[in-house]
Write a structure and sequence with these properties.
Elements: H1 4-19, E1 21-22, H2 32-38, E2 49-50, E3 53-54, H3 60-76, E4 84-87, H4 93-104, E5 110-113, H5 130-133, E6 136-139, H6 151-161, E7 165-169, H7 179-189, E8 192-196, H8 201-205, E9 218-222, E10 233-238, E11 242-243, E12 246-247, H9 248-260, H10 266-279, H11 282-304, E13 308-309, E14 318-322, H12 332-341, E15 344-345, E16 347-349, E17 363-367, H13 369-373, H14 378-392
Parallel strand pairs: 1-15, 5-6, 5-7, 7-8, 8-9
Antiparallel strand pairs: 2-3, 4-10, 9-10, 11-12, 13-14, 14-17, 16-17
Helix pairs in contact: 2-10, 3-10, 4-9, 6-7, 11-14
Bound molecules: pyridoxal-5'-phosphate.
Length: about 400
């Protein structure tokens, strides 16, 4: 590499990544093939529009690439091409979610979603996000005792407030979501059901988390978390679903381009296509199973060691640890800093019913996808839990 300054930073970051235990549940390590495709000459090409309907010439191979990526996306989740459409152009998860709302929700309409403090993402209608400025969030509440989604209350609120879209998905909710119940609530209130499976898409692909496709009208996902691809996103939409007299998949395509974006990042599309093929293998299924086994082992040992695990455990790849425990433990910010010093990377996080501030909340969020990619098993998780415990207790 000629640019020595950047080369030095790449090498330093590589060393940092190799030298730490990475428990950030939304990060992962992609394969060399994904990186090769991502950094390929496809990045040189402009391809505004969609396959076989572009605004520039020279699209022989880009059309083939994008179509292949779409086919692989549908195949991975066992979706029929006549029923589902996949848009692989969103540049990341946030613009993917924004595009869906732009397509379906009139300005000022309601989006029902989990607030940040209950494990939702900024783009589920949070006030600081454009999704909470253009539209109004109707919160999905958790039951304070169980720390699980309160589906009864969700139904009552949805029927009364009539959201246009109900978005279920999370960045910090460790349990299964009952998609069947969410469908019933969407039907009872006349809303579209959108599932943001960004965090758990790889687990769905591996058959260890319930699939939302039987129930949802739209499914969005990032590709760089449990799917182990490059930073990007996919929007799946049902071809038979309409908004007014228009097909929602057509409206969503238009919202992505030209509504929100210009040309797709074709290096990303190539990298996503590679990852989707890798995800459709027995080895990946085994990997997905191991992610969950590892998370359960990590949560179990931390609990044994006296830490309170939000909702009492996990069904997935992520765990919320209440490190503060009403003043009996340590705040999340201090926990995050202490762990980083000890070579364990995680993030501070609010917990349901948070009594502190988002900048110094009561807990930390940890997860197992990255370390599972590196070959760690349950016995390693026990050791990591013990290291977390001794670091936080200063022993
Ligand atoms: C559930 C969920 N949706 C959307 C996003 C946004 O993805 P991005 O950071 O790629 O914009 C995230 C990112 O953490 C997420 O967890």
């Amino acid at each position: 590499m000629h640019d020595k300054q950047i080369e030095k930073l790449i090498k330093a970051e590589e060393k940092r990544q190799k030298g730490v235990i990475n428990l950030i549940p939304s990060e992962n390590y992609v394969s060399k093939d994904v990186l090769t495709a991502l950094g390929s000459i496809f990045d040189n090409k402009y391809a505004e529009g969609y396959p076989y309907a572009r605004y520039y010439a020279g699209q022989k191979y880009t059309d083939e690439l994008e179509t292949l990526c779409q086919k692989r996306a549908l195949k991975l989740f066992k979706l029929k091409e006549d029923l589902w459409h996949a848009n692989v152009q969103p540049l990341s998860g946030s613009p993917a979610n924004l595009a869906v709302y732009l397509a379906l929700v009139p300005k000022g309409g309601k989006i029902m979603g989990l607030p940040l403090s209950s494990g939702g993402h900024l783009t589920h209608g949070q006030k600081v996000s454009i999704t909470g400025k253009m539209w109004e969030q109707l919160p999905i509440n958790l039951n304070p005792k169980t720390e699980l989604i309160d589906y009864e209350k969700m139904k009552e609120d949805a029927i009364r407030e009539k959201p246009v879209v109900i978005v279920v998905g999370f960045t910090a909710y460790p349990r299964f979501v009952d998609f069947k119940k969410c469908r019933e609530i969407a039907d009872a209130s006349g809303a579209f059901l959108m599932v943001d499976m960004s965090h758990f898409a790889g687990l769905v692909a591996g058959g260890v988390y319930p699939s939302p496709f039987e129930y949802a009208d739209v499914v969005t996902t990032t590709t760089h978390k449990t799917l182990r691809g490059p930073r990007s996103a996919i929007i799946f939409s049902r071809k038979d679903k309409k908004s007014g007299d228009k097909d929602i998949s057509v409206l969503i395509d238009k919202a992505v381009f030209p509504g929100l974006q210009g040309g797709p990042h074709l290096g990303q599309v190539a990298g996503v296509a590679v990852a989707l093929k890798e995800d459709n293998t027995p080895a990946f299924k085994k990997y997905a199973k191991q992610i969950v086994k590892n998370a359960k082992a990590l949560a179990g040992e931390l609990s044994e060691l006296g830490w309170r695990i939000v909702s009492g455990g996990t069904d997935s790849h992520l765990i919320l640890v209440d490190t503060w425990m009403n003043g009996k433990g340590i705040p999340g910010k201090e926990a995050e800093a202490k762990l980083e010093k000890a070579g364990i990377i995680c993030n501070k996080n609010t917990i349901p019913g948070e009594t502190r501030s988002p900048f110094d909340p009561s807990g930390i969020r940890i997860g197992t996808p990255a370390e599972t990619t590196r070959g760690k098993k349950e016995k390693d998780m026990i050791l990591i839990a013990r290291k977390i415990n001794s670091t936080l207790r200063g022993k």
